[in-house]
Amino acid sequence: MNERYSRQVLFPGIGKVGQEKISRKSVLIIGAGALGSGNAEVLARAGVGKITIIDRDYVEASNLQRQQLYTEEDAAEKLPKAAAAEKRLKAINSEVKVDAIIGDATPILLEELAADVDLMIDATDNFETRMAMNDVSQKYNVPWIYGACVGSFGMSFSVIPGKTPCLNCLLRAIPLQGMTCDTGGIISPAVQMVIAHQTAEALKILAEDWDAVRTTFVSFDVWRNQYTGLKMSKAKFAGCLSCGSERTYPYLDHENMTKTTVLCGRDTVQIRPSVQGEISLERLAGQLSSLGYTVKGNPYLLSVEMSGERMVIFKDGRALIHGTKDLTHAKSLYQRILG
Amino acid sequence: MNERYSRQVLFPGIGKVGQEKISRKSVLIIGAGALGSGNAEVLARAGVGKITIIDRDYVEASNLQRQQLYTEEDAAEKLPKAAAAEKRLKAINSEVKVDAIIGDATPILLEELAADVDLMIDATDNFETRMAMNDVSQKYNVPWIYGACVGSFGMSFSVIPGKTPCLNCLLRAIPLQGMTCDTGGIISPAVQMVIAHQTAEALKILAEDWDAVRTTFVSFDVWRNQYTGLKMSKAKFAGCLSCGSERTYPYLDHENMTKTTVLCGRDTVQIRPSVQGEISLERLAGQLSSLGYTVKGNPYLLSVEMSGERMVIFKDGRALIHGTKDLTHAKSLYQRILG
Amino acid sequence: MNKVLFFAHLRDCLGEEFLMVEAKGKTVAELKTELNASYDLPKMDTVMTAINEEFAANDEVIQDGDVIAFIPPVSGG
Amino acid sequence: MNKVLFFAHLRDCLGEEFLMVEAKGKTVAELKTELNASYDLPKMDTVMTAINEEFAANDEVIQDGDVIAFIPPVSGG
């Protein structure tokens, strides 16, 4: 027995056999923000065989309040999160193979990566990526664990293809204006609580203790002292386009993705959301003002000054990001605010 | 607004006023193991004014699976946990004052420290220290947050002097043979879950949102998917010697503490527990064997080979630790096994 | 009568933890439309609904005494 | 009849998640003594007891139908 994992081997739910299994498994973590860094640290310490972590952003001062792998130095150097995460994970456990990908978790990339992993962990900040992950999970028969939080509120659900309902069964569409940490704030205990749930499920799945996997959709509020587990036995939707018999994997279809284009000669990126609908500019203006941003607007659009860039958001969710030609950066700014 | 804490200030439960309060508060964390390192990291990231962290042990390989501030290098160098924690906490947030104490959290030391802190966080591995912390809390009117875990099971309770029952109301005596992580194993998600609860309560108390403080005793099992909050309105015990009207603070009394003595000329430390009673040698032998220790015994005593030392445990809980003259080290070994 | 609970930012929008409404015989979708008309809530289409701690689809019919909960899926991570 | 739930290592000692016993009219202390006599459980003195999700002292009397839970305080950290 490797002394390093002795306390985990001693736990009857894992034991020697479970630890052996964990050490041969490969996990894909999508996002290296609060949930991603926390999940990665727990799984690296637990001795997972390989961790692939993907993120498109760099470490900023406002991340340090809750993103546990990063230091002030990482923020000062503006290190890409995936690179900073890799550095710390290797110092924590050199036995774990870490593959850090600095980039956007596009459906194409997710399809490539999913073919070789045993589990995907949701640590993204937007529903478009989650829905793509959900389709990839069904297509390649790989479980994934939904996790999200905002303010003091969080939720988690394990999606096991062929067993549980999937995220598209539950939502039927991408929520147009989800609350994000950039609009609703976030406290670290809510993050930790989601991480606890996601990593418990991850260890069960990696150790192949399938009977122990949680079947309820759990949600909680650590400030208001609430905790609920919803039974999901009736949630599976026969006509679901992601997991039903007539499945089309709609979120792997280019037509249904957010479109980003550099506007010719204007140092501006245009973003068209994947969803049809109308957003509440008034509500958004209120949130962004209370965040300290300078916001101007009229009934048709909102203009927000960000550090170095200006974002103009229209009622149908379309946006122009002035001051950049970087598509990934522009999409990241957009999704941080609109989810 | 300091950009660093912007996401936390945006959370309505804290806001600018709460953040200002948090930044002026002082927290004492007792223990720098799994719960201690996790609590310290969350509170340092949240921008608490001062963190005092006390621990008597050094970093070992078997800690790395769940103790989040430490690296392989810390274990290779056998750094004292308090020192290793201080190093990482400063890299995380240089604005926080960190006071690391390498040593035993004796009642005398706790009394000295408690006079200057706003909150104590329980991250110890034994009930003797918890009961001392509980008495100190009542004597100096400082809230403390109980937290503990073993296997996939964990619990937490906030003790607010003058408002809630105290730990002595609930237990009435020190449990003689509590399960420890060295005998029952531990998985990291259970640790994270306790940390989430302790730090949520800590932020409420530090931001002075007293109405939000949890009044239930929460316990959970992340593997068996259980979660319960016990109402505690009837738990206050009028005759409690720690918080009742005839209080004597029994656990600050030298008579009621574990006694450690070096046996003259024998390279052996003798330990006498604070509690009268009988332990189950048979159960203990089973646990220690499954841990991989070499255990011999007869109906009167158990002999356990540890790395470099041999511990002989008698039915009344007395023990001899052969191969050391270090009282603190010997007590640490003892409490890791007997709680 | 039915108790209707709101979670996360829905609660902040409403300013209350719960409402008492008469929803007997209505579908979940009908209740959502009514609430959208009476209160300043964000669009309820993708908000998850639970009846008595069990997931409920939009076409499920509410019985007298059922406890309804609206849980907005959040996107932060 | 009464359902008696066991948490943490008590459950492992017992091998069951719960027992059905007739405990009506007994005090918590009496039930603990009985269980100690019948099963290979560690000493129950410092095990916390809940009746219907509310903390109960050793002298509390159990009613018919009460759900009892035994929660051993754990010491790991």
TrEMBL record, chains A, B:
Domain THIF-type NAD/FAD binding fold: 5-240
Gene3D superfamilies: NAD(P)-binding Rossmann-like Domain
Keywords on record: Nucleotidyltransferase, Transferase
InterPro entries attached to this UniProt entry: ThiF/MoeB/HesA, ThiF_NAD_FAD-bd, Ubiquitin-activating_enz
Coiled coil (residue ranges): none
Top-level lineage group: Bacteria
GO molecular function, one term: nucleotidyltransferase activity
Keyword Transferase: yes
Keyword Nucleotidyltransferase: yes
NCBIfam families: PRK12475.1 (NF009123)
UniProt cross-references to PANTHER family, sorted A to Z: ADENYLYLTRANSFERASE AND SULFURTRANSFERASE MOCS3, UBIQUITIN-ACTIVATING ENZYME E1
Name by which UniProt lists this protein: Molybdopterin/thiamine biosynthesis adenylyltransferase
Automatic annotation (TrEMBL), chains C, D:
Coiled-coil residue spans: none
KW Nucleotide-binding (keyword) present: yes
Annotated InterPro entries: Beta-grasp_dom_sf, MOCS2A, Mopterin_synth/thiamin_S_b, ThiS/MoaD-like
Domain of life (superkingdom): Bacteria
CDD domains: Ubl_MoaD (cd00754)
Signal sequence range: none
Classification via Pfam families: ThiS (PF02597)
Record flagged with keyword NAD: no
Keyword entries, A-Z: Nucleotide-binding
Similarity comment: family membership: Belongs to the MoaD family.
Record protein name field: Molybdopterin synthase sulfur carrier subunit
Protein species of origin: Neobacillus ginsengisoli
Source taxonomy: Bacteria, Bacillati, Bacillota, Bacilli, Bacillales
